[in-house]
Specification:
Elements lengths: L1 H15 L3 H16 L4 H13 L4 H40 L7 H31 L9 H20 L6 H17 L1
Length: about 190
């Protein structure tokens, strides 16, 4: 039963996760929380871990959730389910619709999806910041250390972007945040 739940849960994520992993985080959150596979705090931690490990976030999360719920076969079922829709869609598009990219209606649909994807990613980011800094999902506990780290990381990111046109690389920001987290939470 759990294998089918994992497969169909992550198949839905794979089918409707437009905009990449960041756009799919609300779907992942909904499926994982509704099945009780993780709580919100653990899911937030796993998103951070999956963000900093090699590979796509959706695949990493599917593999972890599947493994935690049903071992190796659960990880395999969840991972295949989350990647199968994109694989099939790309195969169909590349073989049957080579000229569709030039079609003005296809271009209009793709341009219409961009603002939606941006909005979903922005809403997810705001939710994660507010939830981690102000505990909106667990009674409103203000976490001063988390707020301080968020402000410092935002200052580093935007400050270096102001000084240097490129700013800091994602790898550099991950390393800075890991070091700061170890210092602040390790004390």
């Amino acid at each position: 039963m759990i294998m089918l739940e994992l497969f169909f849960g992550f198949l839905c994520i794979g089918c409707f996760g437009f905009g990449g992993a960041y756009g799919a985080i609300p779907l992942i959150r909904d499926v994982v929380l509704s099945h009780g596979w993780m709580n919100d705090e653990m899911l937030t931690y796993m998103i951070a871990v999956c963000e900093s490990t090699p590979g796509p976030i959706m695949v990493n999360l599917a593999t972890y959730v599947g493994s935690s719920q049903a071992g190796f076969l659960g990880a395999l079922a969840a991972t295949i389910a989350v990647i199968a829709p994109a694989f099939v869609i790309i195969l169909v598009i590349m073989t049957l619709l080579k000229n569709a990219w030039k079609n003005k209606y296809v271009q209009a649909i793709l341009r219409g999806l961009k603002p939606c994807t941006i909005g979903i990613i922005l809403a997810t980011g705001c939710y994660m910041v507010l939830n981690n800094c102000f505990g909106i999902s667990d009674g409103g506990a203000i976490r001063l250390r988390t707020i301080m780290l968020t402000v410092v990381l935002a200052t580093v990111y935007f400050g270096l972007r102001k000084v240097n046109q490129k700013g800091i690389s994602p790898i550099g920001l991950i390393l800075v945040s890991a070091c700061l987290g170890a210092v602040v939470y390790g004390i």
